Amino acid sequence: MDPIGRRPITLQTPPQPARAEARPAANTAAQTVNTAQALGHTQKSGFEAPGVKAVQAPVGTWRAPADSELGKVINGMLDRLKQCDIKIKGDTPESLFRRAILDNKHVTNEQLLAMSKVTLEQLDSGPETRQKVLEKIPNARELPVHKFTVAMLSAATGIDAQKLSEACPDLGMTGAPNTPLLYAAKTERMQRSTALHDFTDYLRGAGIKGLNKAVWGVENRVLSAIVSAVGGGRY
Predict the structure, then answer these.
(1) Are the CB atoms for 77 and 156 separated by under 8 Å?
(2) Which residue ranges of the chain lie beneath pLDDT 70?
(3) What pLDDT score does 76 carry?
(4) What would the pLDDT profile of 84-126 be if each residue is shown by its tens digit?
(5) Does residue 162 sit within a domain?
(6) Region entry Disordered: which residue ranges (predicted)?
(7) Burial (Cβ within 10 Å: 0-12, 13-18, ≥19) of residue 115
(8) How many domains does the chain divide into?
């Protein structure tokens, strides 16, 4: 009671605004997932909003930005290389191309651009060579090493793989059709080195000078083949 006899003074706390009740985090997460599922979306990462489909941008390399002429040429080659998953001694056509050609600083950007402009006529082995190859190795076109080599060369040039196989059944065969030494290698090490040497030497024959030297250290066809056979090279 106050000192002058009035009614007791009651101090009241002003009413507080009602708090929104916090929902359990687990329930919130569950509702988010259910909502996404109901909409038919799957969130793949914390940076991707539900319902937005990720678009893979072209990839540049240390050689060139993705939107440059060279960048577009390289991405086209890599896209085509992914279409063949044959493995020889642990390598696919893509992984061997990346290591021996694309990542090889002895291979120039000008050589890469030149590869993309090579025509089937420049690579065609000719009817006599085709006949000799198929007489010695009738199933040459069916061998994995042939398909592997064709895939690499087709991807680099943009030439249709089937047409390239028809024109050059000797691709991936060890030796040379105009010599007694022509056979399908049995070991994967020799198959891989033959595939890569055929890639560089056929392109050398199509006018891309210096490619044998860039990969094998020597430009001459026979000497580079010997380096390849003994397991040498810059890759």
Answers:
(1) yes
(2) 1-61
(3) 97
(4) 999 999 999 999 999 999 999 999 999 999 999 999 999 999 9
(5) yes
(6) 1-23
(7) buried
(8) 1
The verdict on residue 41 lying in a domain is no
**What is d(CA 188, CA 122) in angstroms, rounded to the nearest whole number?**
28
Q: Decide: 218 and 197 in contact? Cβ < 8 Å.
A: no
Q: Is residue 31 part of a domain?
A: no
Burial 77-91 (b: 16+ CB within 10 A, else e): bbebbeebeeebeeb
Residue at token pair 């030297």:
213
Residue range(s) defining the domain that contains residue 223: 69-229
Residue 175: φ, ψ to 5°:
100, -160
37 is written with which tokens? 């599922």
Ranges assigned E (strand) in the chain: 174-175, 182-183
In the DSSP assignment, the letter for residue 14 is P
Q: 129, exposed or middle or buried, with CB in 10 Å at 0-12, 13-18, 19+? A: middle
Q: pLDDT by residue (tens digit) across 17-37?
A: 444 444 444 444 444 334 333
- CB within 8 A of 142, min separation 6: which ones? none
pLDDT at 2: 41
The two three-digit tokens of residue 204, written as one number: 């050398």
Distance of alpha carbon 100 from alpha carbon 196, whole angstroms: 8
